[in-house]
Fold this sequence. Notes:
The complex is a heterodimer. Chain A is an alpha+beta fold. Chain A is built from 2 helices and 4 strands. In chain A, strands 1-2-3-4 form a 4-stranded antiparallel sheet, covered by helices on one side. Chain B has one domain. Chain B is elongated and about 40 Å long.
Amino acid sequence: MKRIAFALPIACACAALAVLAADDPKQRQDLAAVIALQGKPCGEVVSYVVQGDNDFVATCKDGNRYRVYVKDGRVVVEKK
Amino acid sequence: MSSHDDIDRNPQTAQIGDESIARGSLAVFVFVLVAGCGVVAPPAAPAAPAAQAPAPAPKAAERVAPKASEPSKAAAPAKAAPKAAAPAAPATAPPPVAARPAAAPLDLRSLEQRLKDTDAIGVLTKLSLKNQVDDLIAHFRAFHEGQRPPTLSQLRPAFELLLMKVLSLLQDHDTKLANDINASREAIWGVLTDRDKLAQYL
């Protein structure tokens, strides 16, 4: 019983991580377009991590990483 | 279009709010963009009405002309005036006018709906575009309020750049919509540079 109680949270955490490190191609394109619209170099988003609602960290093909989030109705792109 | 402030206050509805706002504002932008088509079409009237009442075309020319005192591209909307004035002289002008693209009167509502429905642009991209559209319109408002800069010659490149962004986002996945917007380029500029027309869409 103790093992189950111990393993369950870990399993949930792993599942959550898998969800957060999502890999939706449309989302990647969306992030790449947003980064390009802000005039930041990226080229292509190869992966991203969901940090919250409308809050992402995108990793570009050229190695640049950006935090893309919405604040006060504006899309903000910050280099990390 | 008026305020962004309430978008993120409720985190549970933030994404839905962002999406709807982004779509809505983009729709308004395209509405503004495309609206000029319907507005510009009437000056292409045949010679007879022009002889009776030459009001519409000269009015548009008057509005643009003072602003067009700034050089270069600002004169673009004024192109409509010579074209509209030309039919008054030769009575045989109507055939070329009729040969103009008949697709000019676009259905703005359907275009708006198409923009809302298009999958060519993601939610964040729509919101980002909306931000840039708002910024550009704010510059136009400042211009219409008499503030200098910006001048029209400064606003034109910004307008072109933003339109290019929209087109580049649409052209691969929604070519028809991109073409329709591109065809409306000058008409959109005409709306933006006309204080009264712009106010109708804000």
